[in-house]
């Protein structure tokens, strides 16, 4: 079974599909190590981690595809990528879909914002005409080589035109061939309920930070969303926000040590060296060494001893 087919089955299953968001090698490895089988590649996270720039349309196609290719290469996760607006008109969308499919992901999200776009929970969004986005979806569906490759269509019209326009657009995108629908930045539980009951294809909802409330979409659990009929929930900001918090805490303690001369030992705030190596796949490297290095190479590398064991059970 292809990963694209598996993604379709996960979307169509009775249970809601919960997708943590990945944005680099660390986050991808941690998600897989934690037992998840599928993930969403967050465009905002890629822009912020790869470029050090906010999600306001500064990242281009090649940078985004390169990140997706690296993420797909370092894990067995089923991946749904973020293709922004497709980086141009319907012709550009055709090439964008081909590029992401070749990079190894199982599906791609495309949105109806004006380029340069911005994070769906920021102010100042603009959208293209519905008819133009319909043609982008037509181009996307025709471009995919694997008919199971998932096309996810996003609308940002709630901020500009209201719930009625959201429903109209999503149904038009579904009719054009989109497999999964997404209305970003819905403001209330009632809006989520209204949209899910009035669209013709499975609906995805953005839970952002996942474990922290925000000023836009209310914080709901996956179980609550499933009860509303939502098929997929993504958590685009959770891991990047957790990483930033962890780095800030670590640097604050390092600064304290530098300023006071005190030794600070806080194993509760960092994974061990062994766990880091385990998450990053060092055990697989050692298995390959054991299989393919000659006895002389092994002796030279480890001076006749065994490689240090890699922790398997410690999840920090």
UniProtKB/TrEMBL annotation:
- Show the SUPFAM superfamilies listed in the entry: Phosphoenolpyruvate/pyruvate domain
List the molecular function annotations (GO) for this entry.
oxo-acid-lyase activity
Q: Organism's domain of life?
A: Bacteria
**Annotated signal peptide:** none
InterPro entries given for it? ICL/PEPM, Isocitrate_lyase_ph_CS, Pyrv/PenolPyrv_kinase-like_dom, Pyrv_kinase-like_dom_sf
Protein name as it appears in the record: Carboxyvinyl-carboxyphosphonate phosphorylmutase
Q: What is the originating organism of this protein?
A: Bordetella genomosp. 2
């Amino acid at each position: 079974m292809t990963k694209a087919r598996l993604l379709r089955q996960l979307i169509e299953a009775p249970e809601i599909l919960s997708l943590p968001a990945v944005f680099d090698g660390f986050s991808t490895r941690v998600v897989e190590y934690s037992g998840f089988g599928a993930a969403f590649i967050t465009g905002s996270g890629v822009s912020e981690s790869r470029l050090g720039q906010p999600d306001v349309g500064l990242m281009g196609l090649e940078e985004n595809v390169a990140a997706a290719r690296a993420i797909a290469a370092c894990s067995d996760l089923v991946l749904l990528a973020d293709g922004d607006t497709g980086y141009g008109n319907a012709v550009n969308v055709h090439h964008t879909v081909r590029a992401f499919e070749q990079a190894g992901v199982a599906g791609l999200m495309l949105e109806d914002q004006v380029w340069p776009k911005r994070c769906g929970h920021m102010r100042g969004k603009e959208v293209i005409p519905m008819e133009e986005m319909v043609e982008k979806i037509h181009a996307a569906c025709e471009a995919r080589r694997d008919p199971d490759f998932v096309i996810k269509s996003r609308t940002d019209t709630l901020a500009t035109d209201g719930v009625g326009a959201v429903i109209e657009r999503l149904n038009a995108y579904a009719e054009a061939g989109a497999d999964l629908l997404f209305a970003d930045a819905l403001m209330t539980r009632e809006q989520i309920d209204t949209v899910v009951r009035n669209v013709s294809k499975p609906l995805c909802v953005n839970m952002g930070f996942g474990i922290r409330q925000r000023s836009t979409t209310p914080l709901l659990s996956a179980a609550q969303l499933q009860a509303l009929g939502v098929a997929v929930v993504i958590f685009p900001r959770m891991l990047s926000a957790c990483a930033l918090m962890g780095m800030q805490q670590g640097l604050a303690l390092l600064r304290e040590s530098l300023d006071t001369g005190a030794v600070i030992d806080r194993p509760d705030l960092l994974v061990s060296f062994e766990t880091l190596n385990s998450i990053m796949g060092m055990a697989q490297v050692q298995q390959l060494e054991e299989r393919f290095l000659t006895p002389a190479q092994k002796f030279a590398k480890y001076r006749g001893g065994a490689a240090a064991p890699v922790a398997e059970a410690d999840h920090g």
